[in-house]
């Protein structure tokens, strides 16, 4: 989406579109106040809808970190319907609003709105409108494959704080590159510093959600079919073939989530594979992998950055990416991803790798 560093353009558009849409969606009279203040706190827009007060907090982008800041900014507004407005609301931002009991509208035309006051009951749900603010090309992203080494390291043990020099050494990234990534994450309030200038996430769950929400999947995908009655059988068949050919690999998504939690059965498998292309082709042939299929159940992921293997470990007899990487990759899985994500997210944030039971399960 076009950059709006001050947020002024977004606020001006919201001041026009939000009152108009509220009236169109509800048919109720709307009044917008000139002085947008509630409970001693300044808000971006305030008024009444059918006589019920509402307040609006506007952010120039809809990532989960910005949405959480908007929610926090609405905490002290008192008895009024709270509405977050962004250009396009991200999936994780929607979840945060729902959990906080806050309504939202995006300037692309989507909304989830509830207003209750006395006998007045208003519910609006609009979805399916595309992102009207997505520009050509890819925006700079602190969660892009190479940059994500920083976040992956910090989430491996959320209680541990690291200096930028320690991050650069551990991730094999240049100090200047690390500095830019850290500064961006600090600006988003996803990282903070202690008195020793070491950084860490004040809210590890928010940092993980922001990473998962960042649309930074850049890996080449080889889709196909692997024989097997279950996802577990397919994963073990694929792993045996990859190991026989000496290829570095780690399962992610549903297969990794199952290996860590056994929350539910799964059908499709996804596995990062690095190494020689000819060896990979032989290994996939040995596993019975067929690309020409109408029933795909396996994805071989050629990593855009081999940092995806950082923190990989054995779980339930499968070599898997770290739990935090698996949570992020579940956003790109086709089946039961939400169920697995809920089970795995808590485990991923529980602490250091030593806290995870990765022994094989029957």
From TrEMBL:
<dbReference type="InterPro" id="IPR036388">
    <property type="entry name" value="WH-like_DNA-bd_sf"/>
</dbReference>
<dbReference type="InterPro" id="IPR036390">
    <property type="entry name" value="WH_DNA-bd_sf"/>
</dbReference>
<feature type="domain" description="HTH marR-type">
    <location>
        <begin position="146"/>
        <end position="195"/>
    </location>
</feature>
<dbReference type="Pfam" id="PF12802">
    <property type="entry name" value="MarR_2"/>
</dbReference>
<dbReference type="InterPro" id="IPR000835">
    <property type="entry name" value="HTH_MarR-typ"/>
</dbReference>
<protein>
    <recommendedName>
        <fullName>HTH marR-type domain-containing protein</fullName>
    </recommendedName>
</protein>
<dbReference type="GO" id="GO:0003700">
    <property type="term" value="F:DNA-binding transcription factor activity"/>
</dbReference>
């Amino acid at each position: 989406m076009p950059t709006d560093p001050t947020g002024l353009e977004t606020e001006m558009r919201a001041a026009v579109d939000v009152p108009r849409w509220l009236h169109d969606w509800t048919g109720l009279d709307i009044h917008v106040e000139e002085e947008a203040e509630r409970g001693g706190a300044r808000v971006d827009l305030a008024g009444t809808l059918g006589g019920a007060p509402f307040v609006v907090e506007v952010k120039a982008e809809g990532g989960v970190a910005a949405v959480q800041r908007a929610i926090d900014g609405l905490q002290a507004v008192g008895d009024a319907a709270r509405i977050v407005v962004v250009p396009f609301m991200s999936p994780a931002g929607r979840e945060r609003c729902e959990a906080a009991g806050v309504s939202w509208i995006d300037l692309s035309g989507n909304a989830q709105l509830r207003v209750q006051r006395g006998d007045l009951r208003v519910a609006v749900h609009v979805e399916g409108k595309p992102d009207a603010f997505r520009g050509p090309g890819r925006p700079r992203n602190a969660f892009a494959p190479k940059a994500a080494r920083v976040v992956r390291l910090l989430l491996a043990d959320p209680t541990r704080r690291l200096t930028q020099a320690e991050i650069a050494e551990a991730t094999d990234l240049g100090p200047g590159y690390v500095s830019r990534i850290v500064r961006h994450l600090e600006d988003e309030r996803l990282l903070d510093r202690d008195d020793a200038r070491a950084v860490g996430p004040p809210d590890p769950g928010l940092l993980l959600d922001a990473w998962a929400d960042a649309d930074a999947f850049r890996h080449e995908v080889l889709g196909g079919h692997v024989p097997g009655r279950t996802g577990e059988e397919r994963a073990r068949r694929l792993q045996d073939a990859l190991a026989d050919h000496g290829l570095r690999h780690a399962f992610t998504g549903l297969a990794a989530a199952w290996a860590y939690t056994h929350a539910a059965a799964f059908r499709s498998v996804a596995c990062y594979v690095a190494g020689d292309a000819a060896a990979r082709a032989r290994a996939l042939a040995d596993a019975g992998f067929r690309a020409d299929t109408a029933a795909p159940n396996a994805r071989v992921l050629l990593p855009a950055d081999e940092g995806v293997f950082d923190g990989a470990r054995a779980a339930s007899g499968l070599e898997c990416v770290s739990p935090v990487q698996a949570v992020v990759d579940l956003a790109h899985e086709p089946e039961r991803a939400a169920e697995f994500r809920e089970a795995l997210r808590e485990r991923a944030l529980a602490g250091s790798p030593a806290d995870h039971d990765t022994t094989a399960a029957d």
